[in-house]
Amino acid sequence: MAEKVLVVGGGGREHALAWKLAQSPQVQQVLVAPGNAGTAGCGKISNSEVSVSNHAILAQFCKDHHVGLVVVGPEVPLAAGMVDDLTAAGVPCFGPSAKAAQLEASKSFSKAFMERHGIPTARYGSFTAPEEACNYIRTADFPALVVKASGLAAGKGVIVAGDREEACRAVMDIMKDRAFGSAGETVVVEELLEGEEVSCLCFSDGSSVSPMPPAQDHKRLQDGDLGPNTGGMGAYCPTPQVSQELLQQIRDTVLQKTVDGMREEGTPYVGVLYAGLMLTKQGLKVLEFNCRFGDPECQVLLPLLKSDLYEVILNTMSGKLVSSAPVWHQDSSAVTVVMASAGYPGSYKKGVEITGLSQVQDSGVQVFHAGTALKEGGVVSSGGRVLTVTAVRPSLESALQAANQGVAAVGFPGAVYRRDIGHRAIAHLNPDRSLHCVSDRGLTYKGCGVDIAAGNKLVEMIKPLAKATSRPGCNAELGGFAGLFDLKGAGFVDPILVSGTDGVGTKLRIAQACGRHGGLGQDLVAMCVNDVLAQGAEPLFFLDYFSCGRLDVDVAAAVVGGVAAACKVAGCALLGGETAEMPGVYAAGEYDLAGFCVGAVERGALLPRLGDIQEGDLLVGLASSGVHSNGFSLVSKVLQRANLEYSSPALFADSGRTIGDVLLTPTKIYSRLLLPILRSGAVKAFAHITGGGLLENIPRVLPQELAVDLDASRWSIPPVFSWIHKEGGLSEEEMARTFNCGLGAVLVVAPEDAQTVLCQLQAHEEVWIVGSLVHKQQGAKQVVVHNLKHRLQGGGPAPSGEVGVNQNVGFHCKDKRTRVAVLISGTGTNLQALIEQAKHPSSSAEIVVVISNRPGVLGLKKASLAGIQTRVVDHKLYGSRTEFDGTIDRVLEEFGVELVCLAGFMRILTGSFVKKWNGKLLNIHPSLLPSFKGMNAQKQALQAGVRVTGCTVHFAAEEVDAGAIIVQESVPVLAGDTEESLSDRIREAEHRAFPAALELVASGELALQEDGRIVWSSPVPTVKNHTSSSHPQL
Fold it and tell me: Which residues form a coiled coil (predicted)?
């Protein structure tokens, strides 16, 4: 007896399922709920209005209407347990159980499952707290730039970020702003992989698998893989990039291994298993699992299925796949092109009339409906993705041509679609096509190996990355003949321009061998920027040069994307560049890089100050991140000598890292850290330790009569240098002449300035006093490094009696500083003044976090630029003040905060919060309290006619603008004052008073007693009280 089948869903995938099931002689009728215009009354196929969200009602409907099989299309009902509920009610249902569907419904579960069962996937972390996720992004030694909402997000919960900052914003959007609702309660942060992406699906009966032909979809909206991500704009099948051998490997190491693992864990997987894979140079990696047919992959797979789909499903459900494997059409290719509404994936208009569908069907092309509806006898659009036009032909190119012709025949005003579906496969199948210079129309530039279209595509990809590096003086717009920079706009008065150019040497070969290109961008920028910095200059703009034999757009985009990210770190604009495609000059897969940086320094601040440098000056060393970008030709020989590969485990490094991982650690960029210190005048010279190592770089910034006396026992030497020294059998001198040996840069400072410089740097970087300058004796070496061999061999501090730098430097930075949080709502009034105060080496305060109740405000940017962590606790997301304050309190506890400053924080805190932080909560008010409390204090002062007003820093109390007074500063009220002019002068006073109050409380000089009165630890300081005084009044 023929069966009735119910397909759950209403998209193009469900239309394709219904279309294929209806071809079975064993199927009497196919119902689709809710369906679309394409499944409404088409032969055996019709729509049903039965509720699919209420599983009990659905089960009863199936029994009443003699439905013998339910096929579930989308992932949401699978995750909701539709298969479990219908099966329990006695209704056969095809698809995995809710527990098995966790492979898609929870990315956190999926990644942990792959880890448990040794299934290859990207490195990752799973987080329920946004700050932990952001910390992982910032500290991972690989590009942790893929941020995924763990739950179901309708295929939109994945964000591929261009840099760490964007990745952290994505975390906050997902977890704080709930961009994907409850799906984002947990996020997974993954390594960004590079390679070819393919979709490999299979039927699984719980113990065995039967793979389908591999397919590839196209997520980007526009031709050339440009534009925003979508749910999918087309697909093709099979993919020639996946050989039979590779498909067998995928079957064994991914598909079968997954089904075996699910069975071992007591959750047999029955249904369609979809593995999204990336084919990297290091091998295949699983990007994600789906627990159903993909859309639009389904629309190219089912037309190639030779077997009866109904029988395949029954065999799968009864565990007979081994004996009855599905059969597929060989020697055919399928292409489907999605037609979307104008405006998709953003907002779009519905109800647009669609015509010409019957003529398309007559041409041998199948149209599967997605977002369509019937209206007054016609078909209109009702969604973003509206139609998928599928063609099956003997070749991929002919299938694409037929599908495009079908699309052209559809009358759909404003439709958006791609014309290049399968372009990667076509290029793969015709690798030599671009090598023939002669065509029927004569010579072509592309035919001779230079693809201008690919270059243009690259430019479009990197334009937004470059734009993000804009800074004062430059808007970083690509596309012109030359770039412009406005020195006056950047704030310079009498500048000298400084330029530097460099490459990354043979580190390129390691990156190319490992297939990891993104980090080279930072290496390139660092080498140039740090050189410019050695002249005391601020890096202003950067240009890159990328040359190759044949342009791989993805590789080039990864490299230049790394350049752009590094420019943001360095504070310079990516102003332009050159991509040179030179056939025959470079071997396949090879490329070269060069960079050019221009900076500027005011004439009087130029480094080195040779006339000021003298015997006895001290050397401050800044830690390197490793080998940086020099000496890699020697490193390669060491690897050959040790018979090791880049993929070999780095036994000298953290567990799980390879030698390639360690060697590709990017070069440090020192500009943002050092510029404020260089501008202070405390540094006489700066040496960047590049090619030539310790022995040749430091003398470049010194007078000839002085020599360098270094002591390697004074700094930390990364283990990679000890490994190179041992495996290569290198001499102590060779190590010092070739490598930085742990010092990325060296500063020359006077002994009296050393403590200030050291303490300023130690808050952000590992630094040490590593040596001093001595008079150079005739014939003596200009650089002597003591104890280097001892340290490279794993030794600790210098042995007793060993000659070295005087250990009794006597410098000491404040051991314990009070941990401070600043709460803001906007620009962070007084925030910058507090930041500047806390930066001072003698300060008793350390600002550890800035918290805003509003996202995206200027104060958060100020904090980030100062290297301070930020958090957003959006008050609009909380149902009560108590819940909001509780979250603030948890963040404060997380950072170990001891003192809180309210700097323009526009929320009233609950009494319980104020009580908990009594004596640790500072606020400021623009009047001399107790006068003029509340809002509009300046207006109140003007209306009262007072001659003096000012500002007050006080401990916060439950009553508004009450609490014990810490500091007050008076401001005169001048004739003709307006609210605005008076406010400006009071604000200037606040910038002095608030930091002063912060120091008093943070140092313990002043404290609040339980009775609400202030107690001093020493006699109360006095300040002369002048009416117009700009001094704080205590």
Answer: none
Q: What is the pLDDT of residue 1027?
A: 30
User: Phi/psi of residue 172, each to 5°?
Assistant: -65, -40
What are the residues whose beta carbons fall under 8 Å from the beta carbon of 299, sequence distance 6 or more? Answer: 12, 13, 16, 235, 336, 368, 388, 390
Q: Mind listing the pLDDT tens digit for each residue in 947-967?
A: 999 999 999 998 888 899 999
Chain centroid to CA 324: 46
* Cis-peptide into 930, omega within 30 deg: yes
Q: How far apart are CA 201 and CA 125, in angstroms?
A: 26
CB atoms within 10 A of CB 367: 25
Spatial distance between the Cα atoms of 145 and 546, rounded to a whole number of angstroms: 23
Structure tokens at 1034: 């205590």
> For the CA atoms of 228, 231, 235, 237, what is the dihedral angle to 10 degrees?
130
The gap from C-alpha 877 to its chain's centroid, in whole angstroms, comes to 25
The answer to whether 269 and 256 have CB atoms below 8 angstroms apart is no
DSSP string, 859-871: HHHHHHHTT-EEE
Specify the DSSP class assigned to residue 552. Answer: -
Give residue 749's region: left, alpha or beta (phi > 0; psi -120 to 50).
beta
What is the identity of the amino acid at 266? G
Taking the whole predicted model, whether its pTM rises above 0.85 is answered as no
Q: Which residues are registered as beta bridge partners of 591?
A: 548
Q: What angle (nearest 5°) sits at the alpha carbon of residue 554, between those of residues 550 and 559? A: 90
pLDDT of residue 143: 87
Radius of gyration of the chain (CA): 34
* Euclidean distance between CA atoms 491 and 497, whole angstroms: 14
Contacts of 294 (CB under 8 A, 6+ apart): 13, 199, 201, 215, 217, 232, 235, 274
Q: Which two tokens stand for residue 466?
A: 């470059």
Expressed in percent and rounded to 5, the helix, strand and coil fractions of the chain are: 35, 25, 40
CA atoms within 13 Å, Cβ hemisphere of 853: 22
How far apart CA 285 and CA 202 sit, in angstroms, is 17
Rounded to a whole number of angstroms, the distance between the first and last alpha carbons of the chain is: 96
Per the listing, tokens 């006695």 go with: 90
The secondary structure element, H or E, covering residue 790 is helix 788-792
Whether residue 705 is predicted with pLDDT greater than 60 in this model: the reply is yes
**Confidence class of residue 85 from pLDDT cuts 50, 70 and 90?**
very high
State how far Cα 287 lies from the chain centre.
16
Q: 484-515: per-residue pLDDT in tens?
A: 888 876 767 788 999 999 999 999 999 988 88
Round to whole Å and give the CA distance between 992 and 998.
10
Whether the Cβ atoms of residue 770 and residue 714 lie closer than 8 Å to each other: yes
Which neighbouring-strand residues pair with 821?
A: 849, 900
- What is the Cα–Cα distance from 1007 to 955, expressed in whole angstroms? 10
Instruction: Kindly report the backbone phi and psi dihedral angles of residue 683, in degrees, each rounded to the nearest multiple of 5, phi listed first.
Output: -100, 130
Amino acid sitting at position 781: K
Calculated CA dihedral for residues 316, 317, 322, 323, nearest 10 degrees: -100
Q: In this structure, are residues 829 and 906 in contact, taking their beta carbons and an 8 Å threshold? A: no
CB-hemisphere CA count at 13 Å for 256? 13
- How many other CB atoms are found less than 10 A from the CB of residue 556? 22
The rounded Cα 623 to chain-centroid distance in angstroms is: 25
Cite the active site residues: 925
**Strand 899-902, strand 818-824: pairing:** parallel
Two structure tokens written together for 152: 């179901």
Query: What token pair was written down for 757?
Result: 């410089």
**Tokens 């005003």 — which residue?**
413
C-alpha 743/C-alpha 233 separation (Å) is 51
**Whole-angstrom distance, CA of residue 854 vs CA of residue 850:** 12
pLDDT, the chain, mean: 88
pLDDT for the residue numbered 440: 39
Nearest Cα to 211, choosing from 100, 103, 301? 301
Instruction: Give the residue carrying structure tokens 């047999």.
Output: 268
